[in-house]
Write a structure and sequence with these properties.
Largest sheet of chain A: 6 strands, mixed
Mean pLDDT of chain A: 92
Low-confidence stretches of chain A: none
Shape of chain B: globular
Low-confidence stretches of chain B: none
Order of helices and strands of chain B: EEEEEEEEEEE
Strand content of chain A: over 45%
Number of strands of chain B: 11
Largest sheet of chain B: 7 strands, mixed
Shape of chain A: globular
Distance between the termini of chain A: 41 Å
Structural class of chain B: mainly beta
Oligomer: heterodimer
Helix content of chain B: under 10%
Helix content of chain A: under 10%
Distance between the termini of chain B: 36 Å
Order of helices and strands of chain A: EEEEEEEEEEE
Largest interface: A-B, 26 and 28 residues
Structural class of chain A: mainly beta
Number of strands of chain A: 11
Strand content of chain B: over 45%
Number of helices of chain B: 0
Chain lengths: ~110, ~110
């Protein structure tokens, strides 16, 4: 059964710092991994989708990497800003091809 | 283009009451799903649909029913609300299977007393 773990559960950093969020999964037979952002009281917004054939994806100050063999993904945020404060979730396809398994998320707070 | 909309935004129920959470999308996506989000547990799939007239159970289906009569709408029914169903409920759509980006609605906060 696929399980997704995100560490740390919460993170507080000063503005301008570069940071890394971690995501690990137990079954390496995935064909993609997604990172989402969730603002308080809001739905999820997709940030990056990495296909299994890719090792990383970049969007602006965000860079996500995928290492299937080790069952890990990282989300790198460069030059963090207070507006980056949110919960970040990673997700992988679950069994049966349709289901998506989410991690519990990392709550990020960037202090001005 | 509204994307994915959910109503109501917030609801309080008494134990044993029934209600329907509404989800509508205008993106013409075939795949729709319902999740519940609880503190420390991430999102868990309740039910999903791969097209009009086709639904299936997810990870935590007990106590919930769904139907999909049109591409646009995917309502979630609570048959007899229980305090354990207090949660935030999200509807999501994809263009194809779970290999594609999912689009989420704003959520419905449900409190069952």
């Amino acid at each position: 059964k696929q399980e997704v773990t995100q560490i740390p559960a919460a993170l507080s950093v000063p503005e301008g710092e570069n940071l890394v969020l971690n995501c690990s999964f137990t079954d390496s037979a995935i064909y993609n991994l997604q990172w989402f952002r969730q603002d308080p009281g809001k739905g999820l917004t997709s940030l990056l989708l990495i296909q299994s054939s890719q090792r990383e994806q970049t969007s602006g100050r965000l860079n996500a990497s995928l290492d299937k063999s080790s069952g890990r993904s990282t989300l790198y945020i460069a030059a963090s800003q207070p507006g980056d404060s949110a919960t970040y979730l990673c997700a992988v396809p679950g069994g049966g091809g349709f289901k998506t398994i989410f991690g519990a998320g990392t709550r990020l707070f960037v202090k001005a | 283009n509204a994307g994915v909309t959910q109503t109501p935004k917030f609801q309080v129920l008494k134990t044993g009451q029934s209600m329907t959470l509404q989800c509508a999308q205008d993106m013409n996506h075939e795949y729709m799903s319902w999740y519940r989000q609880d503190p420390g547990m991430g999102l868990r799939l309740i039910h999903y649909s791969v097209g009009a007239g086709i639904t299936d159970q997810g990870e935590v289906p007990n106590g919930y029913n769904v139907s999909r009569s049109t591409t646009e709408d995917f309502p979630l029914r609570l048959l007899s609300a229980a305090p354990s169903q207090t949660s935030v409920y999200f509807c999501a759509t994809h263009l194809q299977g779970s290999g594609e980006t999912q689009y989420f609605g704003p959520g419905t906060r449900l409190l069952v007393l």
